[in-house]
Batch of 3 targets.
Target 1
Amino acid sequence: MPVIAEVTIVPLGTKSPSLSPYVAACHRILQEATDIRYQLTPMSTIIEGELPRILEIVQKMHQVPFDEGAQRVSTTIRIDDRRDKSNTMEGKVNSVILAIGTK
């Protein structure tokens, strides 16, 4: 069953406070993966897919800032692994929207 993971990769000790080039380089890894879904947000990236594959992709993404010259990288991963029913990014959002509508 697919899981949903939130990933934040922060290169430290860069020459500029702008991280957009690092984020773009990490997203190239996601664009090459055809077996996952992802969504860029202002503060992180959400990835949906099989857990072993997500962990493999996150490991590749973690390496990207080093390849781009960063000397230190901090990566945070949160995983939502629901086993009683299928879980999707849209399903999670729709469930909140429905709950708002019932109040």
Note: Residues 31 and 99 are 33 Å apart (CA to CA).
Target 2
Amino acid sequence: MNINASLFVQMVVFFLGAWITMKYIWPPLINAIEERQKKIADGLAAANKGEKALAVAAEQSKAIEAEARGRATSLVSDGEKRAQAVIDAAKAQAQVEADRIIEAAKAEAAQEMQRAREQLRGEVAALAVAGAEQILAREVDKTVHAQLLEQLKAKL
């Protein structure tokens, strides 16, 4: 066989194989590679977007947590203020009640003292009459001297 013919046939087969590869095999292969590159790029972009969203969400959660702590603190302080107001109101009401009871006790004591004075006046008058009877050694008429005893009670 002739080397030139063999070389020529090999060259024709090589170019024919290269042309078939470039026409039918290379385009789907390039499309698959480009499609894979696009998927990878999209995945990386989504990952970056997710990282940014995660950072924003972390900041928002910190802000929400700080706000919740602030609200909790304000609720606790409001509760303490309300409790103190209730305690103060109860103290004031207890003081008013204590003052009322003291005034009632004073009034009752004054009435009791007045009753005791009246009773003492009556007893002093009776003792005065009894003493006068014994001193005079005669019977004193109680009906006659009733007005004198009433005047004596009034003076005592």
Note: The chain has two helices and no strands.
Target 3
Amino acid sequence: MKSVTEETRSILLEFQRTEITEHAIYSALAGRLKGPNRDLFRRIAEDEKRHASVWERYTGVSLSPDRWKVVLFVLLAMVMGITFAIKLMEKGEERAEKNYGAVKEAIPEAAEILREETEHEAALADLIDEERLRYMSSMILGLNDALVELTGALAGFTFALGSGKVVAMAGSITGIAAALSMSASEYLSQKSEEGDRKPLKAAVYTGIAYLGTVVVLVFPYMVFDSPFAALALTLLNGVGIILFFTFFMSVVRDAPFRKSFLEMLSISLGVAGISFLIGYLARLFLGVEL
């Protein structure tokens, strides 16, 4: 064990725990991959283990991986994709890297380890290629269109029709028809373009994103008798979808979260507000009562 101050040792213990945990995460994810990605993840896992052993020489203790963190990131990789899980983990590591400056003078190896960590990020950015990311624009098309179009339609139906069950029926018919239309449009659009994306797959991704959004937005009208209570929950669900998807995009594309979230939120709620007013005026002037 090499001599360091207690303050430096506490920082190194944090580094050591992070490195040995990431060794376990990369090792677990390597088992789920094939080809060059597997080799890359295994190499990074060994580098992380070696980094942990360097810190151990200064801390004098052997640490075990954070098992809950390993399970969390493996589950995230299974559900959200490996790119999302790794980029989210690397963002946490970026925050830890700010402490490297505090130990560079006391620990000669710190600069070399920081350089290798930066190389890892570059290698991962160049090599990871997931199908869901290649078709991300198709998913965005379906989700954005469903949010803007269906929140607006449901808001208009709420005041025009006045019955939760009737709004649910009208919203479901509108949503399913629009999902099929969007899928067909995406298929034709991709077929007319030259690229590595398959038109049918692009159409399926668009349709699934649209239909998934339809289910989340229409569901409140199936459980609430009051259409206005259902509309409130629908709008809340819409905000949740926007929040979730914007966060996902900000991680995998290293994009600013706040600007994208506020832009998408203002468009969806703005259209909903205008549609609600149209529904009110339609009911007022046409005299329709259900």
Note: The mean pLDDT is 79.
